[in-house]
Amino acid sequence: MSWSEYAPLVRVRNQVAWLARTINGLVWPPRSLITGELVEGPGLIEPEYWRMLDFVTAPLCIRCGAPFEAYLGEAADADQSCAACIAKPPAYDRARAALAYSDVSRDLILPLKYAGRRDGLALMASWTVNAGKELCDDAELIVPIPLHYTRLARRGFNQAGWLAAAISRQTGVPLSVDALKRVRATPTQAGKSARGRRRSVAGAFSVRRPKRVKDRRILLVDDVFTTGATVEACAKVLRRAGAVSVDVVTVARVVRPADGLI
Question: What is the DSSP letter of 69?
Fold first, then answer.
């Protein structure tokens, strides 16, 4: 088909898309991702709340991605690991997060996690890709943290799967939503200590598609990195299945341990 024949179809498609967006905006007017108040466009946040978002920036631990509390000079610039990762290296290779978990970022993430609010997905995915750019560049397969089928049936969606799909669209890295399987239902992690979280997820995951992960560089995706227990458990089974490397990206991470226990 020549361009002269194709151009009218493109114009019609664009007009239909514009009409659909217009109708959608009238029926479901855009609301702030933080407060739910009406705003001028989808995926927006009021300036006063935008300023309260705490983006995770360097210097960081080269392994877990935790920000150092104080600038360590050239030592930190030389790709240093934090004391916890030196004492016990994690099963994954690297982890990065866009935001520090706080009252404001919690109000951004919980509507996605529990209410299935998707209008902020593209924005959160772009933050996550930016925070983990090197990890995304190295990745060969994106894998979301899975839900147990009973929880998936109750909730109706997996927010990590949605985030992984958005990151896949932005990076072009292939996505496998069923590479991992949660073989055992685990109770909610809220309020548990790091040791309690590790016990809770021990043996909870298996690799459903070994041929997809073997000899691949895997990028695990979740919404929040708290103690790292869940991604540790997933990284271990992926490694046993032959993954070359396992990196982790999340929208937010707990910086102060007490924040993860609320």
Answer: S
